[in-house]
Amino acid sequence: MKLVLLSSTILLAASTCLRAEPPGMSDAQEGFLYAKEVCANCHAIVSNETSPVREAPTFDEIAKKSERSVKTVIERIEAVHPTMPNIPMEREEMNDLAAYILSSDDEEPSNRP
Questions:
Q1: How much is the pLDDT for 82?
Q2: Global pTM?
Q3: Looking at residue 6, what is its pLDDT?
Q4: DSSP assignments along the chain, one per residue
Q5: How far is Cα 69 from Cα 108, in angstroms, rounded to an integer?
Q6: Which residues of the chain have pLDDT under 50?
Q7: Which domains does the chain have, with CATH numbers?
Q8: Beta-carbon contacts of residue 47 (< 8 Å; ≥ 6 apart)
């Protein structure tokens, strides 16, 4: 019985850790490339831009509403939105996108000093 509880606890802890990588393990540049290819049709992905779809929040707004938390950004990405298409994402893509959304100024990472 103790072995079953210990195994369950370890599996639960491991699956929780896989939910969102620490910011240092994600690649904001890859997140930018993904956002440019997939998200930019509806969302403003760079600071000081307006979203092409008026109802779609900008990445700046998403970062602010998520209190700059990777976990919260990922929860927002995973949440069902009535006007947003269901875009299947790999965990790594989600982590990279969250890293980009939370990166300062939300501009293309290669343009930063």
A1: 85
A2: 0.70
A3: 36
A4: -HHHHHHHHHHHHHHHHHHS--GGGS-HHHHHHHIIIIITTTS--STT---SSTTSPPHHHHHHHTTT-HHHHHHHHHS--TTS------HHHHHHHHHHHHSGGGS-GGG--
A5: 20
A6: 1-21, 23, 106-108, 111-113
A7: 2-111 (1.10.760)
A8: 60, 105, 106, 107
**What is the percentage of the chain residues whose pLDDT exceeds 70?**
70
pLDDT at 104: 62
Cα 39 from Cα 66, distance rounded (Å): 17
Assigned token pair, 65: 């509403």
Amino acid symbol at 35: A
Q: Count Cβ atoms within 10 A of the Cβ of residue 29 and give its class: 0-12 exposed, 13-18 middle, 19 or more buried.
A: middle
Please name which of 98, 108, 88 lies closest in space to residue 24, comparing C-alpha atoms: 98
